[in-house]
């Protein structure tokens, strides 16, 4: 299915035709591109299915009042096959009601024999990088939000026809990883009965000196999970002996490097388990260390434009102010060590080298300032700035008993992704994903734990799933197989005269364009909103006594069955795109 065949675009085409005729009659020698022409959903369904504010938004071009413009356009819109009526409402809206017969035929076309999705005209090879949580500890709640957002986004972009690969960047190189190894070493001392203390103020004392004094550096990691890593390692006799030998010989460097690598692998394996529990799969886990080992990071200065790189006070700088950054950035320190930015530039260059034409990164809320410098680097090594997009997964506030739950990663008193899934129980994956997706990702999210635990239809994800299960129960009660249902295309003129039937039919017909708009705008929360509205339309339909399908016979029964079958397909397909299950049986399905 092509995007120009979406229902909304069919209405837009009729409007554009009317505008062309209208401006020609007024002898306005202006192209359509000079006018703002758009179609939106009616804010009040009583006025119609769609509307356009064209008369309001272009009144200065015509130098006429909106009512005159609207009346002129109404005279030119004459598609009786598509429209039941086209009307004007103050202060300047033109409203369109789609004819029920057309809606039904359109729905038959796009929902059978399988649900089709509108394809974009230009498809790309997209590398979608998300989560990329530091392997220095368990994944936190923001990482969980990023996981839900990124995975749903990958599904949505694939529905448009793009080739999408999911990647997790493992930051397994640098000072924070080294400090992780130090933390594990100190906890090993503690497990053997030694007393360790915690440095409260940073000092110039060397790491090795602190180790010998059994002092955990202030900037290192203190969480209880470090004890688990130490315990796991010591349970392996060969590894325990190797570490013991290093300790005995005070070979701190080799010992810390080994423990850092071990801890990274330990944490990463558990992060992968968490992601699996959350239904998120990656095509690749890409190691930062592999870039350093291959010498790719050191190549960065030669990749950038010569005029964008210079040495200042012994440090190599990338002149990111040439690309809108607020200051230039160091990429290599005086002692020759690369900065994190230098490695990140190498990583993104490698993404393009692998053949991807579009890069999408999802970052955490503390990375806004990093966007300009990295986008500048992408331009500097010769790629279009539009080919690299950064999305932000904002902060998550866990709310319990109407109060915010405190979190602190470094001290280890934080709620992890695993904690959340365990708290939510058997429905953790579905509920967690839905709650993370029900608000725009670039806005902070208050995650209501009490509502998330509620198993009634007050819980928004259960409300949708109950609607789906009820439809399945109707087919079971009538002993009709959904999978073998014969599709019908004939419709009687009076079949959809009731408001509840018409509204449900329209919401089903909107499914393809809702998915398309959600995917092209990279906003999965739009699909959650749509599924809520579709479920609400079904509930109103289902609650009306005139729609009791088991009491109907013949063509009316069959047409209503087909209507709810298409509703089921829209609900299940929408939930699948979000990575959420669509159960066919639930405890309240018969309610």
From TrEMBL:
Molecular function (GO) terms for this protein are:
arginine-tRNA ligase activity; ATP binding
Reactions catalysed according to its record: tRNA(Arg) + L-arginine + ATP = L-arginyl-tRNA(Arg) + AMP + diphosphate
Domain DALR anticodon binding positions:
464-586
InterPro entries in UniProt = Arg-tRNA-ligase, Arg-tRNA-synth_N, Arg-tRNA-synth_N_sf, ArgRS_core, DALR_anticod-bd, Rossmann-like_a/b/a_fold, tRNAsynth_Ia_anticodon-bd
Top class in the EC scheme: ligase
Q: Name one GO biological process term.
A: arginyl-tRNA aminoacylation
Q: What is its EC number?
A: 6.1.1.19
Motif 'HIGH' region, residue numbers: 133-143
- Mention any one GO cellular component term assigned to this protein in its UniProt record: cytoplasm
What Gene3D superfamilies does the record tag this protein with? Arginyl tRNA synthetase N-terminal domain, HUPs, Isoleucyl-tRNA Synthetase, Domain 1
The main location is cytoplasm
Keywords from the UniProt entry: Aminoacyl-tRNA synthetase, ATP-binding, Cytoplasm, Ligase, Nucleotide-binding, Protein biosynthesis
Q: Which intervals hold domain Arginyl tRNA synthetase N-terminal?
A: 5-98
Could you tell me which Pfam families the record lists for this protein?
Arg_tRNA_synt_N (PF03485), DALR_1 (PF05746), tRNA-synt_1d (PF00750)
Q: Where in the cell is it found?
A: Cytoplasm
Q: How does it assemble?
A: Monomer.
- Family from the record: Belongs to the class-I aminoacyl-tRNA synthetase family.
Q: What is this protein called?
A: Arginine--tRNA ligase
Source taxonomy: Bacteria, Pseudomonadati, Spirochaetota, Spirochaetia, Leptospirales
